[in-house]
Amino acid sequence: MKTDDLNPAFSARPASDGERLKNLMRAVSENSPTGAEVLKDAGDCSLLFKEFPGSAGAYLRYFNAVTLNPFCSDSVLFSTLVHEARHAAQKVPEVKNPDIWTKVQLNRVTEADAMAFECAAAFEARKNLPNVWEKFAVSHVKVAKAYVDAVCENTSKSAALASAFKAWFDDRRYVDGYDQKETELFLSYPEKDALTSAQILRSVCRYGGAEYMSAEENFLYSERASFISENVYDTYERKNAAREENLSAACKDFSLSAFSVETPFKEKRYGKNAEREQKLREALSFSPTAKALAENFEKTGARIVFCSPRMASEGSDAFSKTVFIEGAASETEALYALVKGMRSLTRPADYQILPETRTMRETILANRVAAADTGAVLGAVCYELRKENPELWRKFRAENPSQAVAYAKRIRRTGNGNTALEAAFKAFFTDKTAVRGNDEASLSEIERRSKRAGAFSDAAKDFLLKDLSVPGGEKYVSVAAFVSSREASEMDEDIFAELKRIGARVAANGGACDNSAASFCTRPKKESIMSSGKKVGAVLAAWFKGKKAR
Asked: Cα–Cα distance between 235 and 183 in angstroms, integer?
């Protein structure tokens, strides 16, 4: 950072201020390794004094300048300098027209990340500069406590930063202050862009070249981070309604309903979609399978959120116990998404969130089993609702032809829902297109994990292929017995080769030797009959020609 004032937009102050700024930078660099790193990452950002009423400092992105309030004590400015310099170092994603959820959470994350580093720097300076830590700890009790607790548990620096980051969201009044400021900047663009929780956290929350929130990339969807005050919600809702009136209903921003609204009395209400949610539940009540599924879903304490298309495309999230449904979706599309989401959140934990150290085979199989089970249960619900909503069954049949045929044939033949579900489950593995699509998604996840140390286990340890049951009923398929069969172990050759390549690369870099992919068997190639067909055709042509000549 530079202490000279390079921006003519700011008035120059006495020369003594320049010396004070240099002393502050020296104090940070000498007493806090984290602070020194932050100042280094800030690059050529300018540092200067500027009076801001009610604020100890600010980062002006347009000027790439950190400003500090000269009337604050050096004990306060020490941590403020680290906080604002961290803003200068942050890699904030550029979104031209963010939707409400993206706008609010992006602003929150940048502030929570800056405070986490501010906390770390103040804590490291506590011996030589005790006033710095005392000032910070008194002002931000929850963040300070979370960081100290993590340090006392001898966790890594990244884990301590993550604890402080998450604790920032616990001070609801402080968070609401930032949210209130953001409402003033909301503009009514007809098209809205959106970022996911993972995209925001991966971009901003970085330390030492790694992502310190990588273990909880869906944190922003959790109950802890998805609250919003009633005043802020109502302000956005008014602007949203005006936007819809001036433009069109299709331009409405549904991302606002992803927040849980907190009233002044600490009561919670989940957006203003209760009436629509109730209609969907009533529509599902005509299906015995869906009714049992809904009962299990209620026990998990999960919620339903109508949101932007980008958020809905991520699917249900077991971490935050949330089913995301696109706000502009039709009733058929909403029912379809709701059933898939409810089944995802009520399935045994083995098939929800996979530990990062599981073998490649376990990852592939768990994702296949989860997809096959979702399709089977979804097929049962769509089939049972085919009279009330024929479009629902047509949609499922078009997207899952193998499972639809298997379920319909078995239920008509036997009338037994268990055997029909089992048939639909196994039919997934005969649909090579569906299996390949699922394997490609798993391969992307495995490739991403392979770039981190300790990404895989060298042996299967904790993975249990639990049997799957009918929603609210008895077991319908023995998973452990089925996945050992050849039918469930077949894989396309190119994906098999890629898994072996990743395993070899990880082992060569000193990671666990994961040879679990060797348990899969490749599908035999379909040999082209073009060449043999041409030969047969030539022989027949010659024979007919010869016969005619005779």
From this structure: 7
Global confidence as pTM: 0.66
> Greater confidence, 378 or 521?
378
Q: Which residues contact 457 (CB under 8 A, 6 or more apart)?
A: 357, 358, 359, 512, 514
Percent of the chain past pLDDT 90, that is, above it, reads: 43
- Alpha-helical segments (H) within 32-73: 33-41
Per-residue pLDDT, averaged over 194-207, amounts to 90
Q: Cα 301–421–410 angle (5° rounding)?
A: 150
Alpha carbon distance 80, 259 (integer Å): 30
How far, CA to CA in Å, does 384 sit from each of 8, 291, 399, 412?
72, 11, 17, 12
Q: Write out pLDDT tens, residues 409-449.
A: 999 999 999 999 999 999 999 999 999 999 998 888 888 87
Grade residue 30 by pLDDT with cuts at 50, 70 and 90. Answer: very high
Instruction: Determine contact, residues 25/18, Cβ cutoff 8 Å.
Output: no
Would you say 400 and 434 are in contact if contact means Cβ atoms under 8 Å apart?
yes
Say if residues 480 and 426 touch (Cβ distance below 8 Å).
Answer: no
Token pair listed for 235: 């302000």
Task: Put residue 209 in one of left, alpha, beta given phi > 0 → left and psi -120 to 50 → alpha.
Answer: left
- Distance CA(261)–CA(231), nearest Å, equals 9
Tell me how far apart the alpha carbons of residues 305 and 324 are, in angstroms, rounded to a whole number.
5
Residues 327, 329, 330, 335: is their CA dihedral positive or negative?
negative
* Token pair 């027949």 in the structure block, residue: 540
Q: What is the mean pLDDT of residues 516-538?
A: 62
- Between CA 381 and CA 390, with CA 386 as vertex, the angle to 5 degrees is 125
Which amino acid appears at position 392 of this protein? L
Higher pLDDT, 100 or 394: 394
Report d(CA 465, CA 326) in Å as an integer.
Answer: 32
Residues 311-322 have pLDDT tens digits of 777 666 666 678
Average pLDDT, the chain: 83
SS (H, E, C) 85-129: HHHHHCCCCCCCCECHHHHHHHHHHHHHHHHHHHHHHHHHCCCCC
Higher-pLDDT residue of 541 and 223 is 223
- The distance from CA 541 to its chain's CA centroid, rounded to whole angstroms, is 62
With b for 16 or more beta-carbon neighbours within 10 A and e for fewer, the 397-413 pattern comes to beebebbbebbbebbee
More confident residue, 4 or 26: 26
User: Which runs of E-coded beta strand occur in 245-396?
Assistant: 260-262, 268-269, 303-307, 322-326
> What angle, 0 to 180 degrees and rounded to 10, lies between the N-to-C axes of helices 157-168 and 100-124?
130
Cα separation of 89 and 38, whole Å? Answer: 7
3-state SS class at 514: coil
CA-closest candidate to residue 115, choices 46, 198, 204? 204
The half-sphere exposure of 136 on its side-chain side, counting CA atoms within 13 A, is 31
Q: What is the mean pLDDT of residues 5-20?
A: 51
- Check residue 13 and report its DSSP letter: -
